Structures are given as C-alpha cells and as structure tokens.
Amino acid sequence: MIAQTIQLALAPVFMLVAIGNIMNLLSTRLGRVVDRSRALQDVHMMTKGPEHDAVVVEIRAIARRIHLITRALFLLVLAGLAIGMTVAVLFLDEIAGFKLPLLAAAFFLLAISLMMWALVLFLGETRIAAQQLRIPRGYLELERKL
Known about the structure:
α1 (2-44) packs antiparallel against α2 (49-95) and α2 packs antiparallel against α3. The chain has one domain (2-132). It contains 4 helices and no strands. The protein has helices at residues 2-44, 49-95, 101-132, 137-140. With 146 residues, it is mainly alpha-helical.
C-alpha cells in the first residue's frame, strides 16, 4: 500500500519541480531587473529634460516589474508549501489510517490555483518588459526598401 501512496505522490512532486523551475526563472529575471534599476538610479540625478523623463518612465516600469516578480515568487513559495502539505496528507492518510482524501485534494487545488495566479503575474511582468523593449519606429527605417 505504501508503494501506491508513493506513486500517488509523484504528480504533486513533479509539480513541485515545475514550481522550482519557474522560481529559478523569476529569480534570474529579478536579478537582472534589480541590476538595471541600480544603473538607472546612478544616472537619475545626472539627467535633465526629456532624457530625465525617459529615465523616470523606465524606473517606474522596473518598479512595477519588481513588484510583480516578488509577488509571483511569494505565491510560488505558498504553492510549494501546499504541495508539501498534499504529500504529507497523502502519507498520513496511508500510514495513520486517517481518511483525508478531500483535504489532500484541497491542498492540491490550492497549489494549482496559487501557481496559476503566479503565472498570471509573470505574464504581466513579461508584457511590461516587452513594452520596454519596443524598438522606436525611427530605428526601423520602414520607409526604406531593403
């Protein structure tokens, strides 16, 4: 019977691996965004006029990205804890004889929901990043036939 519980616990464990991979990706993005914010903060006081405005606009976008990434990471940590609880409840059900399948299902659904919420925040962050990376039309020289 314990072998059956181990097999049953594999799906949540695979989800835990996915959560870890997403957290790694977000942590890397957070590091890059923080580095960029520090660079912009260094030039902030040295700029004036339109150049200063552009720096401020970028700093605001970066602040929003940092907020979204840190919230997504928080939700993923909670999702990971919910997965851990799912596995623990599955084993308590088997070893101690408690009848807790609904509790295990609730923890698993909670983890899925938290991960989906984190992914929505990640989508928002990537949209902001993509907007920041838009190449001005002047550089594209669309009027030229190449």
